UniProtKB/TrEMBL annotation:
Pfam families: Lipase_GDSL_2. Residues 31-209 form the SGNH hydrolase-type esterase domain. It comes from Luteolibacter luteus. This is Acetylhydrolase. PANTHER family: SGNH HYDROLASE-TYPE ESTERASE DOMAIN-CONTAINING PROTEIN, THIOESTERASE 1/PROTEASE 1/LYSOPHOSPHOLIPASE L1. Keywords: Hydrolase. GO terms for molecular function: phosphatidylcholine lysophospholipase activity.
Length: 219
């Protein structure tokens, strides 16, 4: 499915910007995801969308050529539409970094909430498509970041179940799986507000944790 939800940017304009930029950038690294990826930094920029982690972006990627395919409010079905409609055609990056699935846990009038198993199946379909389109690229699959301020928030159990399924998918495909949930949560299970003030999106210090993890893998 293409665009389903409204956000702080123009979804269709961003899709066209990706199509225009991808071959000019000829990326070594392609990030694929939702607003958590979108708001980090990189190209193409989206008028109206925040850029919350520019310092950590520079630390993680340095002078490497990176294409940001994060789209705010995207679910797995939106990513599949975008990848099937030109966004990675012709690209042969060294790395794909996939961080998607958190929005599938939320139902709206436009799309129902998916089960963890359905979301995991969507992620696996994305991985299959990446392999078909760029078989020599390496893949890092991110565990979905925590959301919800407290340990008993229903989103925590959903993400725990989903990440367990994603870890198994990564193992079966022999790809790297990184789950950073413990880094964002304190000893009492509360989300660390200095890392993720709105309980969904990292701030600069939150993005720095992701940057450190990726820098260790992408050499």
């Amino acid at each position: 499915m293409p665009k389903l939800e409204e956000d702080c940017y123009d979804w269709w304009q961003r899709h066209e910007a990706v199509l225009a930029a991808k071959e000019k950038i000829d990326p070594e690294i392609v990030l694929i995801g939702d607003s958590i990826t979108h708001y980090w930094g990189g190209e193409p920029k989206s008028p109206g969308a925040p850029r919350r982690g520019l310092g950590s972006w520079a630390y993680a990627f340095g002078d490497k050529k990176v294409l940001n395919l994060g789209f705010g409010w995207d679910r797995t079905q939106n990513v599949l539409w975008r990848l099937n409609n030109g966004e990675i055609d012709g690209l042969k990056p060294k790395w794909f970094v996939v961080n998607i699935g958190t929005n599938n846990s939320t139902g709206t009038k436009n799309a129902r909430e998916n089960t963890p198993a359905e979301t995991a199946a969507g992620v696996e379909a994305i991985l299959t498509l990446l392999k078909e389109k760029s078989p020599d690229s390496k893949v890092i699959l991110m565990g979905v970041f925590p959301r919800g301020a407290k340990a008993k928030d229903p989103a925590r159990a959903y993400i725990s179940s989903l990440n367990g399924l994603l870890a198994k998918i990564a193992e079966s495909r022999q790809i790297t799986f990184i789950d950073l949930r413990d880094k964002f949560i304190d000893a009492d299970g509360k989300l660390r507000s200095e890392l993720m003030a709105d309980v969904v999106h990292p701030d600069e210090r939150g993005y720095a944790i992701w940057a450190e993890a990726l820098k260790a893998e992408i050499k």
